[in-house]
Design a protein that fits this description.
Layout (H helix, E strand, L loop, with lengths): L1 H5 L3 H11 L1 H37 L11 H14 L4 H16 L3 H14 L6 H14 L3 H14 L6 H14 L3 H14 L4 H16 L23
């Protein structure tokens, strides 16, 4: 008898189980279907919202085009950011609003928008851009000490490798303003060495040469380390 049970096809065993547990099985299948539909709907709406937000962002008129002022452009970017929160286009719009405010010399307002970004998009890959914007605003406002701290924090976090040369160059400029030429020289040399074919690398090289002209001691190569070893004496034969 046992061998006959074992020889029953698998689909027949499944059918027998379903007949015996029809109600729980239907409830389970129904729950799976409902959850799947909810997930699909959420993803669809998210994609649809991203598409709509991207279209709204692409329709923003840049300064100078069709008579648009920079203020008009900033307001348009902020409208996209506020209308489509938690979207990729909304994140880009927030950064672009901050960048245009910075370009317009409105550093306090730009800093406020850059500071919004880590709060609203903490896991965004563009968080480094916002932190660089905050540091740049502090520097432009004359808060050199705070800017140094912000640049160093960005460099230490290494959130975006391609932002590191900009942060190092800006930090070098801050050190130069603080009359710390050795620290500035080290950073300019690093930027020039690691970015030889870029405009930033060329700028770092020029700042380095100006720094050496201003502080001639920086151009003097370091003396070899002294040793306590005595000179060798000729051996007597």
């Amino acid at each position: 008898m046992e061998s006959e049970v074992l020889q029953i096809p698998l689909w027949q065993q499944a059918l027998a189980w379903f007949d015996a547990n029809k109600k729980p099985a239907l409830w389970g299948a129904g729950a799976v279907v409902v959850v799947s539909l909810i997930v699909a709907l959420v993803l669809y709406r998210r994609d649809e919202a991203d598409i709509t937000a991207s279209e709204a962002l692409s329709n923003v008129t840049l300064p100078g085009a069709a008579g648009a002022s920079r203020g008009d452009t900033v307001n348009a970017f902020l409208k996209v950011a506020n209308t489509y929160p938690n979207s990729r286009a909304g994140a880009r719009a927030l950064l672009l609003a901050g960048a245009n405010l910075f370009a317009d010399g409105k550093y306090a307002e730009a800093k406020a928008q850059f500071e919004r970004f880590p709060r609203e998009y903490n896991s965004s890959p563009f968080r480094g851009e916002a932190l660089l914007g905050i540091a740049s605003c502090l520097n432009a406002q004359g808060n050199t000490n705070e800017a140094v701290t912000a640049y160093k924090d960005l460099i230490d976090r290494r959130l975006s490798e391609y932002l590191l040369p900009q942060a190092r160059f800006a930090l070098g400029c801050c050190y130069e303003a603080q009359n710390k030429p050795e620290l500035a020289r080290n950073l300019f040399e690093e930027v020039e060495r690691n970015n030889p074919s870029s405009s930033l690398g060329s700028e770092a090289g020029m700042r380095l040469e100006e720094l050496k002209l201003k502080y001639p001691s920086l151009a003097i190569p370091a003396a070899p380390a002294a040793t306590n070893a005595l000179p060798l004496q000729p051996q007597k034969r």
